[in-house]
Structures are given as structure tokens and as C-alpha cells.
Specification:
There is one protein chain. By secondary structure, the chain is α/β, with parallel strands linked by helices. Helices cover 49% and strands 9% of the residues.
Amino acid sequence: MAKQLHSDDRLQQISWKDLQKLSRREIAYEILLSLPWLIASCVFAYFRLYAPALICSFFFFLTGLRQSHNAQHNTVGISKRATEWLLFFLSTAMMASMHAVKYNHLQHHKHPLSEKDVEAMSAKMPWWKAIMAGPYFIIMIHRTAMRYANKNMRNWILIELIVITGIMLFTYFVIDIHWITYHVTVMVIGECCTSFFAVWTVHHDCDTGGVYSRTVRGKWRTKLFYNMFYHTEHHLFPKVPTCHLPQLAARIDEVIPEIKKQNSTMKIVIAGGTGFIGTYLANYFAESNHEIIILSRKQHLPQKNIKYLLWDGKTIGDWSKIIDGADVLINLAGKSVNCRYTEKNKAEILNSRLNANHILGIAVQQAKRPPKIWFNAASATIYRHADDRPMDENTGEIGSDFSMDVCKAWEKSFYELVLPETRKIILRMSITIGTNGGVYKRFKNLVFAGLGGKMGTGKQMMSWIHVEDIARAITFIIEHEHINGIINVTAPTPISNAHFMAAIRKSNHVPFGLPTPRWFLAFGAFLIGTETELILKSRWVIPQKLMDAGFRFKYPEIEQLAADTF
């Protein structure tokens, strides 16, 4: 297993201790940072100018978080006693105990993104759930700190909560001063948004290969958000004050350049990108503001930063110009194998894959600035029927039948392309599962129809993967330039068909399912126009190269996937 970023030997080469020191001017700046914004917000609210008041309140909250964050790590440049009082002031002004936040934040650094990390509870949620979980997040922060913090910190938390409660009771039930009511209300709302703004934004979809956080850079973003989103740098060297994180980032980039790539936007071309996997990848990368161009046989309206270009998958056309200057090319083109294997369909399955490889290869060869990396879809079905042992990239045995012969020709046509400036990756993908597509709906329908038992003997192995882990694996491979060649893109824990069907039944609260014998599967496959091979072949595939490189699956076990998807 590759070492995680936080234990990377290269970190020892980075000089950072000199960045701990703050000048007197910097100390004064850190202590007074939020005060002008607090005063401005209250003045605007006093004159009932609520639009500018809200802007100032936002920046008070942001700068208050920065001050609290530095105080939690004792990087404000003042004594520890003075730091405690700074946290107390911020608690009463921001309507939450900053000592409770401190306890949870330090635990977050000790156990990042683990079950012990209460602060990062929203990191694994969709963005909207992270927002909805805001009030519960604040409750858990205070509850956890009061339960596990040391006595001194619990005393501070108790005092802060008493004062905050007094302020809120006095504001809402004793006095009627509109600008104070405004400030208290806005701060309470702000605290309920921290699970999204201060946690989700810098930790979602992380923990791949030991990267626990995101870094968000850019000149205007750095100034606008007061260096708060240099978060990977902060996790690597938490004793460096926030004001010195840009200098630290520059030093890190010289030694570990792949961190900088997290922040860069890319031009990504997806050929055949309108199916289940392609649509998911397009939306996944579009969320990170990458430019997405999809090559499709049908015209589609553009969405956000996703554009569509027509191609026929056979001939070079105007579409080939977009290959020039692309950072990433992902080829998913090919007729679906979910059909009867007639001679006509067999020819289309093979030719659609070979033709796409051929014309994309020409486009890349003609490009003045060819893509840095080309991901070509392939299939884990290239390995033989395996019920005796797992197959990985190095020890897997390639079989021979129609499907496996297609896979071999598909990969060979890609291998033969001479592309000296482009890193070539073959993605041997397994059965792909996701909430809005893939095989999930079909299996779920069978379960609710009472046919959720084992299929055939039920002993055949199923290699599977969640579509999000495909996207995350592609991101991981882009960032780790030493990865090359054939990659098995499957979850690390293949299971039997009987186990798979049981997981679907359990997650859908269906206690029993009738088994489906082989003869019935053959009859059903004939009726719906497909082949039983898709269900009965034993695919026992292991993603050894990804695991060796340090990739961490979000859904390594079928039970985890079932809880979120089924």
C-alpha cells in the first residue's frame, strides 16, 4: 500500500517552522481582524440597511472563524491565557462555544474523516444534506465536547453557553433593540450553516490516498476568503498561521506538485458520454468547474459547463478540433452488450468499439496539444469464468468466448495507438451500481416481484463498483502520474450472487426471494432480449493496482453501498 500524503517522506524536505513567527503588526491584525466587520454590520443594521449588513455579517463570521481556527492551534501570536479570552469573546459574538469547537477541531486533526471525527460528519453527505444537518451539527459539537473534553475546557464551554443563553433570552424577551436582534439571529443562522460552509466545502469527496481535505486557491478567492481554503496545507502543517499559508503552499508545490493539481480546472472530453456512467462523470467533474465536452450521436442542450458535440463514432469531423488542448479524454463509446448476441449485434458491439478507438486515436495524433491522459473503457469480463480464485491485473487469466474476444480486440486496438505525449489508461470496469441507473433498478424490480433469491447456483462471484468510486478512481489516477496501463476498476470485496441479492432484499426490507433457476433465466433473457452471461458468469476481480497505489474506496463493502443506494 502506498504511503498516504500525510506520511509522505517528501514532507520532511519542506521548511515551515520559520512561518510560525508573526510580526507585531501581524499579531495586531489577527486579534482585530473581525472587529471592523462586526461594527460595520451593526451600524448598517442600526440604520435598517440589511443588505449591506448581511454582507458585513458574512465577513464577520468568516473572519471570526479564522480567528477561532488560529486560536484553537495557538497560532495567533499571543499567550495561551489571552487566546482563551479571545475564544470567549468570539463565542459570545458568534453565538456558539468556540471552546467546544476547539475540542472537536483538534480531534478532527487527530482522527480525520474517521468515526471519531464529529466535526467532519457532513463531509460524506451530499451538499444539501450537509446544509440540512446544520442544527444537528451544532448540537453534536457541543454535546461531544461536554462529554469528552477535559475539566478546564468543559468549564469554559459551560461559561460560554450560560453567557450565550443569557444574551439570547435578554435579546428576544427583555429588550427590543432591532440591530441587536438582527445580529443574534444572523449569527445563529450562521452557526447552523458551518457544517456546509466550513466543513463540507473543504472535505467532501476526500480521503482518497490519504488526502483528507481540499485546497481552493486563486488570487481573488484567496483574498476574498482570507486564506481560509488553503485547507490541505493547513492539515499538513497545522502550526502555520493562516496568514502564512500562501507562502507554505508555494513551498509545498515545489516538493509535492500533485497537490496543486487539485485546484486546477481541466478540459475533459467524454466520447459516448450520454449513458449512465458518462452522465454521472460529466456531472461529477462539472461540479468542480471543469469544462466538459461530450461527444454524442444525438444533439443535446448544453447544461452549466457541459457542452455536447455531434459525432458518428466512425469518421473524423469538426468534433476532432476539441481534442486539441484537452487535458483528459475519456472514451466510453460502444454499443451496449445488454442485447441478444445475434450476428448483427455482435458485429455492432465489436465495430463500435474499434471504430471509436481508431478515430479518437487519429484526432489525438493530429492535435498540437494532445490530451495528457486518455482513459479507455474496457470490461472486467475479459477474465475467465472464475470460481476458484480472484483475478488481478498481474495474475488474472484471460479467457476466450465472444465477450472476452471483444475485450481483447478492444484493448489491442487501443494498445497499438502510438501516442508518446499521452498517458494511456485501460479501465476494466465491473458491474456498475448507482441510485439513478446501472443494474440497480433491474435487480430492485426483481426483488419486489418476489424473485430476489439467488440466480442459478448463486455461487458465481460478482465484482461490482459504485459509479461514484469510478469517478473518484479517475480523479485519483489523474493526480498520480505514475499509474499507467491496465486498471481493474472494481470494489475490493467481490461477493457471491446469493450475497448480492440478499443485500438488496435486506436494504429494501423484503425478507424472502424466490431463487431463479438457470432455465428460467435463459427463458427470461430471451423474452427481454439479452443474455444470461451477464448474470451467470463468475467475475472475481480485484483492483490490485488501485489498492497498491493507496486509493480508498468510498464503498468498499456491499453493505455500505446498500445503505446509501439500495
